[in-house]
Amino acid sequence: METLAAINRWLMKQHVVSWCVASRGELWCANAFYIYDPQQVAFYILSDDHTRHSQMTGLQASVAGTVNSQPKTVALIRGVQFTGEIRRMEEEESAGPRAQYNRRFPVARMLSAPMWEIRLTEIKFTDNTLGFGKKLHWLRESGTQQA
Fold first, then answer.
1. CB-based contact 91:65 (threshold 8 Å)
2. Distance CA 67, CA 79 (A)
């Protein structure tokens, strides 16, 4: 679990996720502020139902995406690539994550957008601070981790 613990620590410090969905041969990407739940290995975001990515997602869809920092030097590059599923949460089940989201991003209190969960199934974490090109891998199915 050291691999997932390292990934979780880094993801908890970031705040913007980029993700892409596909529908009927069309691809679309989006960005959002997120909160991360290390127990669920999931991001929670807000997004209006009328957005292109939400309409392409429907109630649930496969998703791929990234979270990265913006260092000016290659030796400090760190970032996550992931696959998973995105789904629109019911209002009552989103109460806990929404309260956490509102604490982290107070301006969100003014938004009525629904909450979405991006549940990760695979993570590749590149961390050049551990050595150039160092990658850590995690898979949900088996809890597998590789250095």
1. no
2. 6
Q: Are 116 and 98 in contact (CB under 8 A)?
A: no
Residue 80, token pair as written in the block: 């996550």
Rounded to 5 degrees, φ, ψ at 77 are: -60, 130
DSSP 82-136: EEEEEEEPPTTTTHHHHHHHHHHSGGGGG--PPEEEEEEEEEEEEEGGGSTT-EE
End-to-end CA distance of the chain: 11
Give burial (CB, 10 Å; 0-12/13-18/19+) of 89. Answer: middle
- CA distance linking residue 44 with residue 108, whole number of Å: 13
CA distance 15 to 1: 23
User: Does pTM top 0.85 for this prediction?
Assistant: yes
The amino acid present at 52, given as its one-letter code, is R
Q: Could you list the mean pLDDT of each consecutive 10-residue stretch along the chain, which spans 147 residues?
A: 91 97 93 97 95 88 94 90 96 95 94 95 92 92 61
> Are 44 and 37 spatial neighbours (Cβ–Cβ below 8 Å)?
yes
